[in-house]
Amino acid sequence: xxxxxxxxxxxxxxxxxxxxxxxxxxxxxxxxxxxxxxxxxxxxxxxxxxxxxxxxxxxxxxxxxxxxxxxxxxxxxxxxxxxxxxxxxxxxxxxxxxxxxxxxxxxxxxxxxxxxxxxxxxxxxxxxxxxxxxxxxxxxxxxxxxxxxxxxxxxxxxxxxxxxxxxxxxxxxxxxxxxxxxxxxxxxxxxxxxxxxxxxxxxxxxxxxxxxxxxxxxxxxxxxxxxxxxxxxxxxxxxxxxxxxxxxxxxxxxxxxxxxxxxxxxxxxxxxxxxxxxxxxxxxxxxxxxxxxxxxxxxxxxxxxxxxxxxxxxxxxxxxxxxxxxxxxxxxxxxxxxxxxxxxxxxxxxxxxxxxxxxxxxxxxxxxxxxxxxxxxxxxxxxxxxxxxxxxxxxxxxxxxxxxxxxxxxxxxxxxxxxxxxxxxxxxxxxxxxxxxxxx
Length: 440
Hints:
Helices cover 46% and strands 13% of the residues. By secondary structure, the protein is an alpha/beta fold. Helix 6 (147-160) crosses helix 7.
């Protein structure tokens, strides 16, 4: 008999809205929701960033998809059923409608660091043309394209419909991501509809999280492997066995039993967030730029290259000094990262990780660079990571896919000029700029 496509008749009721329907969300938050013991009560209405094909494919499969958990030796296939509705990101009418539902309790986000449209001080970048266009669109009742704009539009619709309190849960790699999300939302609301501000302060909880699960892009070979196993699926997701989720904050209308699925609720995410941001994400960025410049393609390639591995250890030796966790825990975490990075069956490409470096370098590398220089140490590992990004801006290694890169590309011939734009407080450090010149 031919294999049947994924389909179903019964879906869980929508009590979560998600913005940023993509592979990481489907490997992480959707997986935790599907794995929770009360999964039958917590369906997700998920919206893409802007594209339609993924939403169309998931809708044709009743929201179901296959998660390929790829270990070093074998795959494990799981059908995930927590996505009850899939919508394209430009369907603003459905977004507003979903947010007005009184039974909706949670909004989650996986939209990348750049999507929050933050200015240099962390607030909303009101010079961004898309932000300015969205402010005008909000006043005119027209569709919006930015994440802050869409969040405020949805929250305003909820306010007008007396929808009640709700938790907003950022799952992107931003320090203090709950506070960061609150700030851009309040900034946008203050500029667009000041009457909304007190309602947000009284009714919206912004939850801070730390998320971790390596999720590479799905390839045609992955789609074929699922079909060969008797589960035709247009949009499977590949991920690693490891997963971690820490959350800090309040859920005024309840939440799934994510803790029963392995999530941890803590009083302070910050130390764990720093651990992941500096060691995993910072290590990824170093390998993405330095490894691709050496002709390597994947994280597994880079971490098994002796030169890249030495540079990674150098970076980690510096970074751990700025993570307030026990030394033994950090040593164990480094060992686990090496095992995860070296998994040859997870094809996590350096080009994918290299995207949006102008947003990532300031939060993944600069805190260590500043800390090391303030302590009078040479910061060779941090400088090397920054230098690798500068050579990337010059066209070496992975292609540049970064909307914010052009001002840095224009200055890439001079590391000092890049540093002046990126971190003016460091540009006067002559030893640092000399080392950058040497490494680039």
